[in-house]
Design brief:
It comes from Streptomyces mashuensis. The protein has helices at 7-11, 40-43, 100-108, 127-142, 162-175, 195-227, 240-251, 256-263, 267-277, and strands at 85-92, 113-118, 148-152, 178-181, 188-190. The chain has 278 residues and is of the alpha/beta class. Strands 2-1-3-4-5 form a five-stranded mixed β-sheet, with helices on both faces.
Length: 278
């Protein structure tokens, strides 16, 4: 008997947990057509294919055409879990910050898939994080015994405060997904069950304390600078010398338009400073 060894043949030895295609048949779309790719949860059941991002449906299955069930084959036993599948997430707050350093670290951690975005933690919805969690859930649904890890460089990439971190902890716990931190004092892999839940709580509080500490130091620095006469913001375009010249020329009856043009400032700015010095 000939053993089929193509990725498609290996995938079709398992029923699909997403579209419920039976063993021996291609995956199907919600519209009842043959899917172009096998669903991730299905090929994740094949240990040798767990690191693949997609497995295409063969041309002889007629992708895009009406779905037809293939010849039934015996359902194989659930695959023995292999190495953990790492789903990575990277984030920075602004366009001015760079993501590459995080991506380089995650690449060295052998992550199966990396989701990244430039978005502030003040924004409640983070699409790429949701995609990472959705993929992790899909794999766990297809292979409940398969270890799946959400990997980040540091905890602050995930949330803005303790409440959000604890919510995420509950989500990971419900889905059986582990968390891996690649840097910081609590570097390592944490299961959000049992003792891992305590670690999540400590991480959440520590992150919020750190954020509040940075905010407090910033406010203290601004207050100290203000008491020394240094105020934040852009420097004024009208210094003392320009103001003295403007006042003298204005006192001689010269128009504000002519003075502003000579000093290279706007009429509104000149009016404001003359009014402030009056």
């Amino acid at each position: 008997m000939t053993t089929n060894t193509t990725p498609a043949d290996q995938v079709e030895r398992h029923p699909c947990p997403k579209c419920e295609a039976p063993a021996g048949s291609p995956c199907r779309t919600g519209a009842g057509k043959v899917a172009a790719n096998y669903h991730t949860g299905r090929f994740a059941l094949v240990p040798s294919l767990k690191a693949e991002l997609t497995v295409k449906t063969p041309a002889d299955r007629n992708p895009g055409k009406r779905w037809v069930q293939g010849e039934p084959v015996p359902v194989v036993a659930e695959a023995v879990p292999g190495a953990a599948i790492r789903i990575a997430y990277a984030r920075c707050s602004t366009v001015g910050q760079e993501l590459q350093s995080q991506l380089d670290i995650l690449a060295r951690a052998n992550c199966t898939r990396v989701f990244s975005e430039k978005i502030s933690t003040r924004v409640k919805e983070r699409p790429e994080l949701e995609k990472a969690l959705a993929l992790a859930r899909e794999i766990k649904t297809a292979a409940p015994n398969q270890p799946v890890i959400l990997t980040v460089v540091e905890m602050k990439r995930l949330a803005r405060n303790a409440a959000e971190l604890m919510t995420l902890s509950s989500t990971l716990q419900a889905d059986g997904i582990q968390l891996e931190l690649l840097s910081g004092p609590l570097q390592g892999v944490y299961d959000p069950n049992g003792a891992g839940a305590i670690v999540f709580a400590v991480l959440a509080v520590a992150a919020e304390v750190e954020r509040e500490g940075i905010r407090e130091k910033t406010l203290e620095g601004l207050d100290t600078a203000a008491r020394k006469g240094n105020h934040g913001g852009r420097p004024s375009v009208v210094d003392d010398d320009k103001l003295a010249i403007a006042r003298a020329r204005h006192a001689k009856g010269e128009s504000v338009t002519a003075i502003a043009k000579a000093l290279g400032i706007s009429r509104a700015t000149l009016y404001r400073h003359i009014g402030e010095s009056a």
